[in-house]
Design brief:
Blueprint (H helix, E strand, L loop, with lengths): L1 H25 L3 H38 L3 H8 L1 H18 L1 H8 L9 E10 L2 E9 L2 H11 L2 E2 L5 H13 L10 E7 L2 E8 L4 E9 L4
Helix pairs in contact: 1-2, 1-4
Length: 215
Amino acid sequence: MKEKAIYIVGAALVFITSLVCGGLMISTIPIVRFTIGLLFGAVMGIAVVGVQILSQSVLSKFIARPLRLSARKKVWLLTVPIVGCISWLVAGTYFGTNPKAQFKRLLITPIPQSVRSIERGGSFGVDGGFSVLRFNISQTDLEKLIADLQFLPEQDSRGPTYWKERLWNRAGVMFDLQEPYKSYILRRNRDERRVFYSTNTSVAYFVFCTYSSGA
């Protein structure tokens, strides 16, 4: 009976954690976040119950009997998959959604001293991923970053209206860059990176697009 209660409580905790963490990691758009969170939570909840059942079988046959573990200790051991799964989800969410961690992972580390007010947004789907960082940076640090990462100057033929719509729809980030602004691009295999920078306001946008093999 205690094992069954652990299964139910564990599945519920993992479902709730997965709903929140999965949604946060996949998208910053509310409806996408909720939908993906539900699906991810259901999958993870079922998976953790399967792991618990397997653990219960191994525990009973190879550990509990030889070591003569009490029922209470067996119950505590059954919580290990739950704690492990929740810890993994929380850690993954932190490193996947923290703006500074994203800046270091997608752009450069250490973060230049002049960088301030980092905001992030993005979403992931079957066609690939779309990540955006908005931040303030001095022109000197921006030029060094562009040179170090080997971005190339680009003439932005699409204009601010296109990017305003795309960033809002795919990442939930408002593109409010004042004209005139500079545009830079870097292409690698199936990903495309862009930097937009306004010298008037020192505001920069980093846009990172990845494309699936079938896209």
